[in-house]
Amino acid sequence: MRSTFSGLNTMVSGLQAHQLALDTVGQNLSNDSTDGYSRQSVNLVATTPLAQNTLYGVSYVGTGVDAVSITRARDIFADKHYWRENASKSYYEERQTNYTAVEQVFNDSQINDQDVGLKSSIDKFWNSWQTLSGDASNDDDRISTRDTAVTMADKIKTMASQMQSQIGTNYDQLKTDVTEVNKITTQILDLNKNIRQAEATGGMANDLRDQRDKLVDDLSKYIKTDVTVQSDGTYSISNNGSVLVDGRGKLTLDLQSQDNSEYGITDYNLTFKETGTIYNPSDGEIKALQDNVVEDKNYIDKLGNYSAFFLSTFNAQHKEGYGIDGANNGKGSTDINFFGETGNSYKWINNEDGTSGAYEKAYIEKTSASGVEELRGINIINELTVNSKITDKGGTDYIAAKGANVYTKDTSYTDSNGKTVKKGDYIDANGNWVDYDHRIPSENGKADGADGSNAVTLSTIFKKTLTDAAVNDHIKEAAGMIDASGNLKISSTNNKSLYDYYNDSMTELGTASSVTDDNVTKMTSVVTQADNARQSVSGVNWNEELTNMIKFQQGYSACARVLTTMDEMLDKLINSTGTVGR
What we know:
Blueprint: H1 6-30, E1 40-46, E2 50-54, E3 57-61, E4 65-72, H2 76-105, E5 110-111, E6 114-115, H3 118-134, H4 139-198, H5 206-222, E7 226-229, E8 235-239, E9 242-245, E10 253-260, E11 265-272, H6 284-318, E12 345-349, E13 363-368, E14 371-375, H7 378-383, H8 388-391, E15 413-414, E16 420-421, H9 453-463, H10 473-479, H11 498-538, H12 542-576
Antiparallel strand pairs: 1-4, 2-3, 5-6, 7-8, 8-9, 10-11, 12-13, 13-14, 15-16
Helix pairs in contact: 1-12, 2-4, 2-5, 2-6, 2-11, 3-4, 3-9, 4-5, 4-6, 6-10
């Protein structure tokens, strides 16, 4: 049997439900500009009806409305899509930043009408040898050759220093990112616990969930986030097989420093503090920073390869010629390094070949009075200095631009030392045989002060492969192109000319940078579309909210009017019924 006042309860429930709906509309409109906020809605259901006996049986009379929950509009699949693509976008953006910095270091364009790049320095050094080949005894030309060599070596060292600084910049950003990731995962862990506690009685912690999703948005910038929603409402976030945070705990990222003498820097390994194991992230800004360091080291290696060319190939060819210092019975000094000190020898060692496939990172083998040393990376570059014998006062006379005297007659003879001299042998000023098996002969067979035969060959090897330049096997072996048995190997310039190797490296840099720019443009569009897709679900729509406001306000007013009418009916019943005859 229905209560006399049950209608009042029905209307009160309607008032409460519509007021709650209006409050929720106000919450949505108030948070329209709140980053990460998800639109909320009240889920209304009719309450359990009462049975009412009628002439034709039992009927069920409604008892009002109830709000069973307040839920947020959110599409977890759209979120996962956004998180995945946002990590890729951040990866390419960070790579783009690094390529921009590398391109500035290797910039060959003009500044204030001046060529400032490495290519310009190499060009000037090459031109100086071409000029010297015309008149090897010209003091001004020899000074120019020395000075352009010093400038080129300094340029290579400056560029290497800039690349070291760029590596340091990447590591500084990595430290900041690791700190931020640890901060975010700590907050997510706290929110996981609070959400689980708040929802234990069946409610929905909408605002806490929004905060957590916003943190995952932020986390997806640094690493690729794989999110699994657990049955208790908590998130389990993993990356590359490692669970970073869930409802029970988290892993802390840590950076372990390690000195790297090969590149003259301090490297940092990314590990989990709790286990000490190496962490290899997939995608995101942190992965990009690690790849940037590898890329920057690669360009230090390229600078090292340029330097190795001059220390091994160029030096070996320079030793073939003669200076104009008057030593060696007037022929001039020989076997003098142009780069590096005279007592040292430099040879390119590369154990990778097409036959065995064996691999060990190539290096310069430096032999000096103190022993044999392997030089790699920045240490090759630091070794690239013009011989102090040449940079000293009057030292340009030691620049070996001349060729050697060669015996050109068909008849042979015995010199004063009992050596047989035949056509093609090298002889000193007194006609005695000289043990110089690989010397460059002078243009006319007999070198003089102006002869620049060796300068011609030295200028040739800049722009020709050693095979095309027709240098002897002694030079090829020093360059690492062949071994002592004549087997083909890989030189510091990949068996290319110095210019071809440099141009290929710059083309590779330009192509990689251009592809990265395209990927940034593409991923920006993809992320925008992904964000628009989820905003279409969770974003606040003013038109929709204002429509709901009118609807709920009208509903509230209607319930209030019915309540007033029922109040008047009950007033009549209570105060006016049964008063006749009193």
